[in-house]
Amino acid sequence: MILINHIRQIVCISDSYQSFKIGTDMSNLHIIEDGAIIIQGERIYELGSSNDILSHYSPDNFTEIYDASDMCLIPGLVDAHTHVVFSGDRVHEFAMKLEGKSYMEIQAAGGGITFTTSHVRESSEEELYNLLIPRLDRMLAFGTTLAEAKSGYGLELDSEVKMLKVIKKANEEHTIDLVATYLPGHAVNPGKTAQEMVDDIVNHQIPVIKQLKDNGEINPEMIDVFCEKNVYEIEETKAILEAGKRIGLEANFHGEEIEYLESGVLAASVKARAMSHLENLSEQAIPLMAEAGVIGVLLPTTQYLLHLKTPPARSMIANGVPVAIGTDFNPNMWCLSMPLAMHMACVNYRLSMAEALVASTLNAAASMGRSQEYGSIEPRKYADLVFIKAERWEHLIYQMADPPIAAVWKKGKIVID
Ligand code: NIG
Ligand code: FE
């Protein structure tokens, strides 16, 4: 067993995730001052005040003892939304955006997702994997220990499967744990209609995805669609999400980003696990989402880059919609840092720092079905830990682009020091 003692603050999030209401308890952080934590193997064994722990154990009980009297401790950060697998970056489009071209104008001119998709189709699994690994390394250095990862740049069966295989391999081989999302409806291929895409996805792709999942070749757990005007609108999105649900995938989709379509009502009616973006979410959808338990994933980096409306984050929290945060790392928005996304959510959406931390740990873990084992510092959960060298944990968010992350532990092992 390993003991880390005299930690200035252990920010546990909750003392029991089972009784923590991820929608309404977001301001109630459970913090232990001058704390100690015992790790056994990959998991947290016990924690409490240093006095308490030290009075129950002798130094002989431990193989290693660390003093962390200049550190605060938070759970490993969880990134609720990434498109981290791709080739074909879009640095050239950044200048177009600065000149005032909209996201949809760039996409309509053959750029955007269509550009990246043509590169991904040409890339081998190995090339995609080799591009992915350094990105995951950066995420880990910024404190992310669990992330959602989407396909969505194949947009035909073989290339979508290729992306899902890359995610599965990276999950097995890289320190960061990844939860895979199959995103067949990310854009409409040139020359096709949305309905033709839906027919292909529902009748051709999804049965094969199920077969490959059953064989253990890929492991998607969620299904995603870019629900947007002139991309996949409500009925088309619904058809794809429901077909995914029939093979056991949870719905976790993009909605209400650029134009208002009432995707929030759809999310509630299909009992989606989560919906991301939410810039145009209507007030009437909020209680329905709360009732259905849909988690709202905020992506403050993309909203900033594309000058989108401000999502009604305060109203979501006030009405009991659990809010999570993601970086939305993708070739449009290059950000691998959860602390930066958290800072933006605080300043631009008026989340408190406590809310931003819950949104980036326990709630984000819940948005990918992982809150039983990740997202808070509690006995039996994985020892995924981020050490912050500061007087108080809030320095993580306050120090914006330069968070004072001193060490990261993953499943009981030091991985960044
Ligand atoms: O979440 N809006 C749709 N999907 C991504 C962007 C993907 C891309 O532009 O490559 C997002 O922002
Ligand atoms: Fe996205």
TrEMBL record:
It catalyses: 4-imidazolone-5-propanoate + H2O = N-formimidoyl-L-glutamate. InterPro entries: Amidohydro-rel (IPR006680), HutI (IPR005920), Metal-dep_hydrolase_composite (IPR011059), Metal_Hydrolase (IPR032466). Keywords: Histidine metabolism, Hydrolase, Iron, Metal-binding, Zinc. Pfam families: Amidohydro_1. One of its GO terms (cellular component) is cytoplasm. SUPFAM superfamilies: Composite domain of metallo-dependent hydrolases, Metallo-dependent hydrolases. Residues 73-415 form the Amidohydrolase-related domain. Belongs to the metallo-dependent hydrolases superfamily. HutI family. This is Probable imidazolonepropionase. The lineage of its organism: Eukaryota, Sar, Alveolata, Ciliophora, Postciliodesmatophora.
